[in-house]
Amino acid sequence: MPITFNVISRKNIQKPNDPPKYYADIVGNGETTLADLAKYASTVSTVSKADILAVLESTFSKIADDVADGKIVYVGEYFTLQAGGSSEGKETGDEVNASSIKSVRTVFRPGKMIKDALKLATFQKKG
C-alpha cells in the first residue's frame, strides 16, 4: 500500500513577496494498534493473541521505564529510543541544574529494518 500525501503551499517568510511553493505533505492513512500487532503475530506463529499481547505489553512497559531512567533502548534492528531535551542557557556550568531543563522528548531513531522498508515505499497523491 502506498504512502499518501496531500499538496500544500508554503510561503518563504524570509521572502514574503515571492509566490508560495508547493510541497508534498505526507499524511497518516489508518492505524495499527497493539491488538492488531498481536493478532498478526498469532496468525504467523503458534502463540495465541492473548499471550503475544501480554508479552508486547510487558515489553513496551519495560521500554518506557528504561527510557525514563535515561537508558538508550535498542530494539533489535528496528529502532532505538532514548530521552532528549532542551535546557535554559546559563552563564557558568555551576549554574546548570535539573531545573534548567525546560522540555523532555523521546528521540526515535529508525533501525536498518525500518530504513530498508521505507526505501521500498511507494507514494500516492490523496484524492
From TrEMBL:
Gene Ontology MF terms in the entry: DNA binding
Signal sequence region: none
Domain of life per record: Bacteria
UniProt KW Signal keyword: no
The protein's name: DNA-binding protein
InterPro entries: HU-HIG, IHF-like_DNA-bd_dom_sf
Keyword entries, A-Z: DNA-binding
All residue ranges annotated as the HU domain in the record: 1-125
Lineage: Bacteria, Pseudomonadati, Bacteroidota, Flavobacteriia, Flavobacteriales
Stored Pfam families: HU-HIG (PF18291)
